[in-house]
Each structure stands twice: as structure tokens, then as C-alpha cells.
Design a protein that fits this description.
By secondary structure, this protein is of the alpha+beta class. The protein has one domain: 2-Layer Sandwich (Cytochrome Bc1 Complex, Chain A, domain 1). It is built from eight helices and seven strands, in the order E-E-E-H-H-E-E-H-H-H-H-H-E-H-E. Strands 1-2-6-3-5-4-7 form a seven-stranded mixed sheet. A hairpin with a 2-residue loop joins strand 4 and strand 5. Helix 1 packs across helix 7. The protein is globular. The relative contact order is 0.24.
Length: about 280
């Protein structure tokens, strides 16, 4: 049987995006992928976890979990209904580099998705009842993590690898003592200081030909403005501990998982279009 000859691979390079920058500082990178009619988008707001105030470790993670729990225009239930009605998968999480908010949406509903994304980022209200629910959920997670060998090992690893008193030596989603002390005001204040458009980047990929992406983004995220507020508090930068005489080893880095339980010590909110409690 004759088989086709195996040819060497041709040259390939990562495609360059169509890049723009809005008046509010938000960078937009668009990748046109013909035939991909489910558009994916990720918005990244960079900040270090060391920007969390002392004693409020976990406030960034709790803020991320609350972004789609109600805005000044829509309640939590209304947002969930809109996401489901338009087939929008929404997810938010934090890691050592900042906040990431993800969307997957059918091409024809991209405009609605970007409008809801703008609401969640620029105008969340952090309802008191939802804040209490999210904090209780985190406390329950901590109890489960204590009974889980992988989570316990990961906690001890980061506490050993990073110097005591640094943010990196603590769980991303916070310790029990800090979570119990958090209030709605703490979360709202952290959001106001850190979730701003001037350093943010939006990446959109999908079948974008024929869409007025620039107009959709300018009329929604382009209206997002940074509110005047206090500057971000800073903690000392964390560095792994170096022990004289110790052998070299591979150090695992921490990054955003696909689910909250995928990597111990990390936090994320599952993408949602259907309401889950």
C-alpha cells in the first residue's frame, strides 16, 4: 500500500492581533479566527496580591467571586438569567498577576456579553447577603482543605517556600481569620482601588469579520472610568527562601486553574451561564 510522503512542517508564527487602545487606557487585542462562531474573550486587570491591605488576604478572590452577583442595573438573579438567555459563559478569578474575567459567547450575542462584562467590572454593588454567602462558602472551603492531603501539602509548601509575613506565603483565597474579618466595605474599597481600565487588557478571539468590534467595545468598556480613590497599599515583594547547601529542585509556580479545586491554594469562579449555588 502506497502511503503519502510525510513532508516537513511549513513555517508558522503566532498571528498578530489587531491592537487598539481606548481613551480610558484599556488595550484591546482582536484575533479574527474564521469559522469560530463562539467568541472567547479575556479581560485582565493586573495587580499583585501584595496590594491587598494587611490582614485582608483573600479580599481580591472574594471580590472576583462577587462581580456577577449584582450591579446597579441588574440583580444577581437578573444577571444569571441574561447570561443564560444569551448563551454566555462567564468566569472570574485571581492569581499572583491580577484579575481575569473570561467570556465565551455566540458571535451574535457578543454585544450583550460585552455590556454585561462592563457592568460587572465597573458597577458591581456587592449585595450584603451575597457577600455573607460568599464568605461562608470560603470558610467551608477552608475546612475542606484542611482535610485534604493535596491542599494541606500545597499550603505547607508555599508557607515554606516564601518568607513569613509576605503575601505569597498565604493562600490566595485567604485564611479563616482574614475571611471572618472581611466586610462588604472592605471588598468594595479594594475593587474601587484596583479594578480600573487604565492598565487593563481585553483579548477577543473568534470569527470577527463583519462585526464592528471597535464600536461594541467603545460604547461599553470604553465608557468605563477610573474613580478617584486612594492609592494601592504595597507589601514587600515575596521571594522564595534560599537555604545554603540545599539541592536544586523544580519549584512549581502558581497559576489560574480551570476550576477552584484544580490547584490547591488557587481560586477561580467557574464560568456560568446557568445559575449555581
Amino acid at each position: 500500500m502506497n502511503r503519502p510522503a510525510v513532508l516537513p512542517p511549513g513555517p508558522w508564527s503566532f498571528p498578530l492581533p489587531a491592537a487598539t487602545r481606548l481613551d480610558n487606557g484599556l488595550r484591546v487585542h482582536a484575533y479574527d479566527l474564521p469559522g469560530q462562531y463562539v467568541v472567547s474573550a479575556r479581560l485582565v486587570v493586573p495587580f499583585g496580591l501584595n496590594s491587598e491591605p494587611e490582614g485582608q488576604d483573600g479580599v481580591a478572590a472574594m471580590m472576583a467571586r462577587l462581580l456577577d452577583e449584582g450591579t446597579s442595573r441588574h440583580t444577581s438573579e437578573e444577571l444569571a438569567a441574561l447570561l443564560e438567555r444569551h448563551g454566555i459563559a462567564f468566569g472570574a478569578g485571581v492569581n499572583d498577576g491580577g484579575l481575569m474575567v473570561d467570556l465565551d459567547v455566540p458571535r451574535r450575542h457578543l454585544g450583550v456579553a460585552v455590556e454585561l462584562l462592563t457592568e460587572a467590572l465597573a458597577d458591581p454593588v456587592f449585595p450584603e447577603a451575597e457577600v455573607h454567602r460568599i464568605l461562608r462558602t470560603r470558610l467551608a472551603e477552608i475546612e475542606q482543605e484542611r482535610a485534604s492531603s493535596p491542599h494541606r501539602a500545597a499550603r505547607e509548601l508555599i508557607a515554606t517556600m516564601y518568607a513569613g509575613g509576605t503575601r505569597a506565603a498565604l493562600p490566595t483565597a485567604g485564611r479563616a481569620d482574614s475571611i471572618r474579618a472581611l466586610t462588604r466595605s472592605d471588598i468594595a474599597a479594594f475593587h474601587a482601588r484596583t479594578v480600573t481600565p487604565d492598565q487593563a487588557t481585553l483579548v477577543v478571539a473568534g470569527a470577527l469579520a463583519g462585526l464592528d468590534l471597535d464600536g461594541l467595545v467603545a460604547s461599553s468598556l470604553g465608557q468605563w472610568r477610573r474613580e478617584p480613590g486612594e492609592t494601592r497599599p504595597r507589601r514587600p515583594r515575596s521571594r522564595p527562601r534560599m537555604r545554603p547547601g540545599s539541592s536544586s529542585s523544580t519549584v512549581p509556580t502558581r497559576s489560574r486553574p480551570r476550576s477552584p479545586s484544580a490547584v490547591p491554594g488557587r481560586t477561580a469562579v467557574p464560568r456560568r451561564g446557568r445559575r449555581t449555588r
